[in-house]
Amino acid sequence: RTWGRLTNLQNYQQVVEDGRFHAILASLASRLDDCDARMLSMVADATARFRTSTPELGELAQRLAEVVVRREDAFNPRNLANVAIALAIRGVRDVATVEFIKAEALKVIDDLEPSHCIVLLEAFRRWGIFDRQLVDLVVERMSDEVDRFTARDVVDAFAVISRLGLARGFLLRRLCTLSFENLRQFTPRELTKMAYSLAKLRFLAQGNIDDLADALAPELHRLMGSQITELLYAVAMADGRHQIELARSLVGQYVADKKARPIQSLSSLIDFAWAVLALDLVDEFPEEFKAALADIFERTPPQNRGPLMKLFDAICAIELQHQSLGITVPPVWRAACDDADRFEMDRLESSRLHNELVMRFDHLRGTANGTRWQLRMQRGMQCGAYRVDMLDEDSKICIDIETVSWPTSRKLKHRLLTQLGYRPLRLEYWDWRRARTEEDQNIYLQREVTNLLEAQR
């Protein structure tokens, strides 16, 4: 565990290639059968502390999983959570292990503390498994235990909920009430992480941005790297143009930090580029924007679709609005971003939410400017460089839903679609969910479409 904590990018290879390190792992693997549940949990925790895996760490984790699944009813909630996240981090996800963790978690569900719930959700997320029964029970347990959340629990809960795209309004409202009543109890790093997660969940109002800006003001100059871009991204996602001076300050701060520490994470560079575009600040910081794109394109495209989808937005905006900058997008990046956007659009096209909307539009009628309207929506249509959730070709009304799983606000996209002659309409996910009945949904859609048509006379 100590080695894992002390290992960093500079000494990592030296540690994992050391014969003594291999001897320790081999010794642990040979003696796992003699360990009790607490010791197995400690071994699991130790393996998870290394930033990247090695064949030796992977073999130890696999051996650990084989021993763990034979210890039914032996793990308390904390130890179970430790084992789950460690195995998930090391990539052990065989059916027997996952089913064992799930079965044991269900047994101790009423004893889980907030931190245990969060870790279990993160473990199953890393495994790529969404088990509705387990998630529902864990979220219910979290809702019951809101008063026991620490500041760190709140931040970690928002993070895992946003990564999962969990639209659990009741829990989010309770956690938001708790956190915004006690903002001074959070560190600046925790506040930026919280803002980032809530922005992705479309649960960050402009008033919340003001509260966060006030709480961060005394320590704003201490933010570094991804902390700066997370806050900038949150401002852009909430369309916080009333805080444009804060946004300008954050751009300048990130540029200065980038000069002092040239190696910035890929995700922070992409967040920076997208936010500068979304807040319409490119003309004020053209060279800084170009430098960030150059840094991005020097690297290899990631496997994670989230950053690629953000960059897809940015590439479209550059080609439609900022050709004068002379930015050339490498073909490998263009292809990766296009594939990520297309994959996610195809996945959402058949979702229950999209099916609900199409059913409502099939029978929807309305009047705008004294003229009757009826829309014939087609899904997944191409509009210029973009694909949209739905399009009525006759009226050129295109609709996108601000789902909590999509990594960017559609505001930038719709600004550009307007320039191309379309009539874009964003439907807020949480507004739609508040429309409980078919009648409420029809009234909501009729109002939104009518307002759009009347505003564009």
Describe the fold and architecture.
- The chain has 457 residues and is α+β, with helices and mostly antiparallel strands.
- It is 62% helix and 7% strand.
- It contains 23 helices and 6 strands.
- The protein has helices at residues 2-6, 12-16, 19-30, 37-48, 55-68, 77-89, 95-107, 114-127, 132-144, 151-164, 169-180, 188-200, 206-216, 226-237, 244-260, 266-278, 286-297, 305-321, 331-349, 352-362, 411-419, 429-434, 438-455; strands spanning 366-368, 371-373, 378-383, 386-392, 397-402, 423-428.
- Strands 3-4-5-6 form a 4-stranded mixed beta sheet, sandwiched between helices. A two-stranded antiparallel ribbon has the order 1-2.
- β5, α21 and β6 form a beta-alpha-beta unit.
- The chain is globular.
- The N and C termini lie far apart (67 Å).
- The model has no long low-confidence stretch (mean pLDDT 93).
Compact overview of the structure:
The protein has helices at residues 2-6, 12-16, 19-30, 37-48, 55-68, 77-89, 95-107, 114-127, 132-144, 151-164, 169-180, 188-200, 206-216, 226-237, 244-260, 266-278, 286-297, 305-321, 331-349, 352-362, 411-419, 429-434, 438-455, and strands at residues 366-368, 371-373, 378-383, 386-392, 397-402, 423-428. The chain is of the alpha+beta class and 457 residues long.
Keywords:
6 strands, single chain, 457 residues, globular, 4-stranded mixed sheet, two-stranded antiparallel sheet, alpha+beta
Explain the layout of strands and helices.
Elements: H1 2-6, H2 12-16, H3 19-30, H4 37-48, H5 55-68, H6 77-89, H7 95-107, H8 114-127, H9 132-144, H10 151-164, H11 169-180, H12 188-200, H13 206-216, H14 226-237, H15 244-260, H16 266-278, H17 286-297, H18 305-321, H19 331-349, H20 352-362, E1 366-368, E2 371-373, E3 378-383, E4 386-392, E5 397-402, H21 411-419, E6 423-428, H22 429-434, H23 438-455
Parallel strand pairs: 5-6
Antiparallel strand pairs: 1-2, 3-4, 4-5
Helix pairs in contact: 3-5, 4-5, 4-6, 6-7, 6-8, 8-9, 8-10, 10-12, 12-13, 12-14, 14-15, 14-16, 16-17, 16-18, 18-19
